[in-house]
Amino acid sequence: MKDIEKMLESVEKKQPRRNVGAQFTTNVLDTIERTNQKESLFMKFAHKPMLATAAVGTLLVMGTGAYAAAANWPTIQSFFGGEQTLSTGNRIVGVKTDGCRVADDTPGAADNMHYYEIRKDSPLTNDQVVAMVQGECEDDLVAKQSNVLAQEILKSKSPGESFYSSSFLTIEQINNGSITVVADTSHQGVVVSSPTTYNVATDVHVMDGSATIQYSDLKVGDTVTLFNVDERGISTEKQGYTQDLSAIHVKAILKTPTSTGNASLFYKDLGKEFVRVIPQKDGSFKRAYEFDK
Amino acid sequence: MIANTKTATKFPHNCIYSMNKKIDDKELIAQSLQGDHTAFGILVDRYKNALYRHCFAILQDEYTAEDVAQETFITAYFKLKLYKSEYKFATWLFKIGTNKALNVLRKNSKTVRVDDDFFAHQKSKHPGPDTQALFNELEHAVTLLKPKHQLAVRLHYWQGMKYADIATLMSVSEGTVKSLIYRAKTQLKKELL
Q1: S-S: A285 plus which of A277, B5, B40, B63, CB 3.0-4.6 Å?
Q2: A228 near A250, Cβ under 8 Å?
Q3: Class of domain B112-193 (CATH, top level)
Q4: Which residues in chain B have their CB less than 8 angstroms from residue A154's CB?
């Protein structure tokens, strides 16, 4: 036994020959965000699976309708993948996405085909289904890129400062030292749309996707995410707290592509007009969540 | 006016920060519990390499180790409410990672394949043609042990961990760790000598 002990002790500790990949943290956070979105969006509905009867094989990929994001951003394209009417009168619509995965629970998701069951009396057209999936994909992309920039900013933040970001803002006015934005309420979670003016830091960092651009490159009508630093501390009990914006300054700006999809349709009709379905091995579809009652 | 920009977007990292330059784990955990991904991202950055190396020590495969490390952080995020602050965050995290790595060992236990490349750069402290072959045999024999035995052997002999630390990670007593290692050595002796 002692020989074994000796041998075990003599083996030198093996070290990995590389470190973790550069995208490690981003991948972790992306997965968390996707899971959160699924829970907050999808799981609010009754979750009892229900089998719908339609044959996956009869859906034909037609490849119409393409969309693309702006330069410096990864391209996202969504295509109509075909449709199949169920015996209930509801129809299944397939949407193929390049550069985006709406959900991870679809078998064979390598081809990124996603399926939705549309109510028989729904006014949703197939083009609108494609557009809403595209919109959701674009929102996700902005979220990912914002997350990357947020982590950068956090590294240089001073003690006592609080920090937050706001996405899907449209520039109404811009000049040296200040920016006026209004929220685009067509995106998930954006509920208020009054114009607000912020001071802009002299060393403001401005990016367009993966590229650094100048503050002067921004113009009225651009969609942006603002990363604000708030020097008021964290107490919200102070009188005039919500009105006083002078202590807030914009530390960084992410210019985001103008949406080519229709995310608002996605959020508005989810559960009401459509639900996502998952193809099964026997050719049927299982609802990922139920229609609203 | 945007009345409440802090909650006006979909991203959880919009939460207000109140942070010092050196942010301790507890504060980051508190912020993560409020849904702040950026705070959790800092924790991931802080521990990712150590956790990856720990998983690698158990699994001996870089890609699997990285996958397990990622899964560990994701599980940790969603189970953060269960974390008890009297323990070090790293200990809790490594415990999750150890369990996940153990599950991988269990899955692979019936289909163990020895990585030839491993032998190519595995070095003993006293390398020599004969001893090297013996060490190769030893490593192969370790991969054939029961998953818990493998885990205990790898952590103790090749990671230099104390029985008590291994016991914490495996959620067993120190005596159990000793027993696992004893049984592992008995099995190795049967295989090799």
Answers
A1: A277
A2: yes
A3: mainly alpha
A4: 17, 38, 42
